[in-house]
Amino acid sequence: MTGLVAERTTVPASEAEAVDLIREHAARAMPLRILGGGTRKAGRASGPATLLSTAGLSGITLFEPAEMVLSAKAGTPMAEIEAALDAKGQMLPFEPMDHRRLLGTGGEPTIGGVAAGNICGPRRFKAGGARDSLIGLRFINGAGEVIRSGGRVMKNVTGLDLVKLQAGACGTLGLLSEVTFKLLPTPETSASLVIEGLGDEAAVALLCKAAGSPFEMTGAAHLPAGAGSATARTVLRVEGFADQVTYRLERLAALCESPALRLDARDSLALWRDIRDGVVLDAAPGDAVWRVSIAPNRAPKLAARLRGARRFTHIYDWCGGLMLLATPEEGDAGAEVLRAAVAAEGGGHATLLRGSEALRARIDVFQPLTPGLERLTRAVKASIDPKGLFNPGLMYPGL
Amino acid sequence: MAGIAFPEPSQAILARKREIVAALKALIPADAVIEDARELVPYETDAFTAYRRVPLAVVLPRSTDEVSRVLKYCHEAGVPVVPRGAGTSLAGGAIPLEDAVVVGVARMDRLIDVDFANRTARVEAGMTNLAISDAVGPKGFFYAPDPSSQLACTIGGNIANNSGGAHCLKYGVTTNNILGLTLVLDDGEVVEIGGDAIDAPGYDFLGLLCGSEGQMGIITEAVVRILPKPEGARPVLFGFATSEDAGACVADVIGAGIVPVAMEFMDKPAIEICENFAHAGYPMDAGALLIVEVEGSNAEMASMLARIIEIARAHKVQTIKESQSAMEAAAIWKGRKSAFGATGRVADYICMDGTVPLGKLSHVLKETDRIVESYGLRVANVFHAGDGNMHPLVLYDVNDPDERVKAEAAGMDILKLCVESGGCLTGEHGVGIEKRDLMHHQYRPEELAQQKRIRAAFDRAERFNPSKVFPLEARS
């Protein structure tokens, strides 16, 4: 980490200060690396840059429970947001993952990091990701101009949707200074069914069948044997008012055609927190962890395809649409084999979620783009950040 | 009338019409190219019928490959392109230009593949919104966004406008229901964005394309999410003495942790117009009406409705009408869904669709009445109360040029009011040409310039759907 010691860290105390800082860097074409809570070692390892911490841009700026909307400055800790929401019985719908336990990092996740990383969790397949709840933001572009997009209203098609564009751009398209999310009421209660002993294929088929039922399942994971338990567990969650939860759980249990254990709210919450944060994954301390996105019912086929080629452990969330996969770091940590297998299974993508700095320097952390998408990606980057100031190289080489 | 300006067509392009048509006919089957002046008339406008321009030609390709060939040619020949779905835009988003070729996707209307296990369908861009739901309905699924024009409007047009509907309170709008796109770029290059996985790699171009109003390329295919139908759905009608009571009830329902699948608001003029047309049994003595729909099993709906009714009682609800049958439910919705058509029978109207924060609804309603009255006109309000998406219908007589100008001016004043109240110009209809010149009320010059640069990353010569969305004076 000697590279980092030599770097300067700046902590603008306001959006206006951040604008000045960015203009200075633009004038000298000096790169910036944006630092939120520092809980994710996201992206490719890249060259020296001024560290721009969002810690000084903190605080909830608007919270209207009756309108289910919240705005906060980008550096606001998630803990502060969650406490404010809890007090009014509301929540961010997309259940953002907390990376600290899986990645072994410290720090406090920030709302800006959640937006920029499009961080989400188990409810994603049902309620959407951060990008689906993010309805407005302010960012500073490469010319040091403050650009607003979206707003605080639920429906808005006025001009281009730069809100979505920024979600998942990992800070490569400017510094987010303030974000606005729509909210949902926190469910009165929740509960889960657990079916033990299913193979991957049968489990994912069951989860897909349940997701196609009208019973509003909001969590659908399969944890193969070894992932937190000696026996494979297929977990289905429902949330809502108590009478709804009871009814839906009964109907889902009938649909399962196998004996199912019932987890009450407390145990269900604890298990889903562990699924959300990836800690049920049986990963050795030095393992790389991949995040694979694929059509749900092709995920078990992908695992079967990899079985001969590489040693790995895995879990499925989103009915199978999301796989977390742990494998030794040796070589390319399976990047090539994995991505070839994803392509052979009809497409999807694989992103390295956890890996040493050395690994992140030698492989593509993000799924390489097709030539058409790469051209558009470079053109869009240049249209917002022509000098390449923000997080250079974090997502793709030379960008 | 004063009206909305169109740029002067390029005489050089107009003079090349014969050459351009011949070239297009050499690229795709001749029956897919329309050039005859009379046959072009049906394409001269969309649902924003006050403005019309006959295009140079219309092409109706049958495949992505044909679209690609047409766009490559237009790129090389320097001819502007106006994409068209079903032409149901209320904002003039599909109105042609005289020196442009209209590329319509109406003949690309096939359902390519349905994957029930993964709950996705791949469709061609010209498939209508309702046809998707009809195709997957027998297996218990539907496509969620439901704009009022869903019988006619295409999925390609829905994506270009990020269309909403009455049920987006629960199900979201188009951008929340699309997983993949096939996009043909300005030079004919075909790019696949996303696919059938739940999220897509790289920058969120799906999100960027949704609502881009045909200015970044032509969408030829889409992978859409299909959802299981609920066990049941039940609308209930609530009549209140005043709009304020109805508005406060909406806020308290949401505040109580209840998110109904739809909450629709109508004011007194709208109630009268709709009831006279649909005979839905709306309470004629009410000052405002809410239609609240819940979903689930019978027991779930009963329990949810009991909670909502209790809240409505606290706001002095005068009439509660629960639908006891599918027929009654349909009647309740019929009044609301025919609001625009029914209004069209009593007067001509322009429909605005600004969105405002829920807390500002009462204020904006009152001000809307005042604005319209100041022009000596009448207004009927129907809107999606759960999400603050207003739909004031400003009534006027189309044969009175003076009234038309006043109606347009009143509409613009209402939209400015929406922006000043913390909302936006358009919640679901799009900017098109209608609201183009109001964009500087919502955005600063550098913000519009940033949007235009992003657009130019896709459409390098700004040849797709020119003179829409961005104010003419902001053009480079």
Characterization of the model:
The complex is a heterodimer of chains A (399) and B (476). Chain A folds into three domains: 1-186, Uridine Diphospho-n-acetylenolpyruvylglucosamine Reductase, domain 3, CATH 3.30.465.10; 189-276, 2-Layer Sandwich (Alpha-Beta Plaits); 288-362, Alpha-Beta Plaits. Helices cover 32% and strands 23% of the residues of chain A. Chain A contains 15 helices and 18 strands. In chain A, the strands form five sheets. A five-stranded antiparallel sheet of chain A has the order 4-5-9-7-8. A four-stranded antiparallel sheet of chain A has the order 12-13-11-14, with helices on both faces. Chain B has 476 residues and is an alpha+beta fold. Among the domains of chain B are: 233-339, Alpha-Beta Plaits; 347-438, Alpha-Beta Plaits (2-Layer Sandwich). In chain B, the strands form four sheets. Chain B has a seven-stranded antiparallel sheet with strand order 15-12-14-13-17-18-16, sandwiched between helices. In chain B, a hairpin with a 4-residue loop joins strand 5 (111-115) and strand 6 (120-124). The longest helix of chain B is centred in the C-terminal third of the chain and has 20 residues, at 401-420. The model of chain B has no long low-confidence stretch (mean pLDDT 94).
Keywords:
heterodimer; A: 399 residues; alpha+beta; Alpha-Beta Plaits; five-stranded antiparallel β-sheet; four-stranded antiparallel β-sheet; 15 helices; 18 strands; globular; B: 476 residues; seven-stranded antiparallel β-sheet
